[in-house]
Amino acid sequence: GLDKKSEVRKPRYVRVNTLKIDAEYAKSELRQQYSVQEDDMVPDLLILPPGADLHNHPLVKNGSIFLQGRASSMAAVALGPKPGWKVIDACSAPGNKTVHLAALMKGKGKIIACELNKDRVKRLQDNVKLAGAINVKVKHGDFLNLDPKDPSYSKVRAILLDPSCSGSGTAFDRLDHLLPSHSAEGTSDHVDVKRLQKLAGFQKKALEHALSFPSVERIVYSTCSIHQTENEDVVNSVLHFASSLGFQLATAFPQWPRRGLPTFDGSEHLLRTDPTIDKEGFFISLFVREGLAQNEEH
Ligand code: SAM
Predict the structure, then answer these.
(1) Is 165 annotated in some ligand binding site?
(2) What is the pLDDT of residues 142-187, one digit of tens each?
(3) ipTM value of the model?
(4) Is 76 in the pocket of ligand 1 (CB under 6 A)?
């Protein structure tokens, strides 16, 4: 668990669910109790003082605001789906990013929210309902089994891929625990390497699968890991395949200073948050393909 000190240090982020209320209303409500600032990068994200406990706040209970970290909130914004698009959230439970996508799309279009784990599907469904995200269709199953040739996916324009990862970017909330060897389970370095390679194997497969959908023009691959194995290495390993399909890396949040580790040409497009500076370690990559003829019918 967290010690009191680190709890106090970490600012609290609140994402306004614009499907239900607007940021002005959220601010005026929250300001009755807290000082509230707006984030300068993610729209509709509010910053509250460290230690603010909102778990039982009426706006949380009724799905008007979501307690979601800053880095995590950047993923859906980086994907940038437009209202009316068809979108897949490949690994979606508990659905924080799914309902964020729905809000960015103003509830218009369709999100297929895929989740493998049965218990987590329940949490996903609850969150989708709570958020009032009526354009989300929850699909219980393996993303790798969604057939890119299936006509029902032929118009999918964007995919968010936020797969299972080591969680090493969130495993330490205390500044004196910043060594990668202090994983969530306290496992040894040796076990970590094997575990990371196994995770990276799945991540690569899932990313290649996402790249295979015929009409997709935007893909975000994100993790809450600090490990190169799950981040830059996974991206690098699919670059050849991606470019053969017309995809290029694009720069998500160009104004953000912390980019990918300089392990290959183009890694400056990648985005990292730093657990020391940003209080969480997160990774975002964005693949973009231009020049596809899309059938605009909405
Ligand atoms: N994007 C979510 C959010 O913001 O709330 C968090 C996703 S979590 C990092 C990864 C999820 O992927 C887990 O719920 C896990 O059960 C699911 N998952 C793992 N393998 C999968 C697969 N092959 N197909 C679909 N979902 C999978």
Answers:
(1) no
(2) 999 999 999 999 999 999 999 999 999 997 554 444 444 444 444 4
(3) 0.99
(4) no
Q: 71-289: which CATH number, 3.40.640.10, 3.40.50.150, 3.90.1150.10, 3.40.50.200?
A: 3.40.50.150
Q: Where are the alpha helices (DSSP H) in the chain?
A: 4-9, 23-30, 58-61, 70-79, 96-104, 118-131, 189-211, 232-244
- Check the annotation: does 162 bind a ligand: yes
Fold of 4-67: Alpha-Beta Plaits (3.30.70)
Give me the helix-helix angle, 189-211 and 232-244, nearest 10°: 20
| Burial call 237-257: b when 16+ CB within 10 Å, e when fewer | bbbeebeeeebebbbbbeebe
Average pLDDT across the chain, whole number: 92
Is 224 among the residues known to form the active site?
yes
Asked if residue 164 has its Cβ within 6 Å of ligand 1, the reply is yes
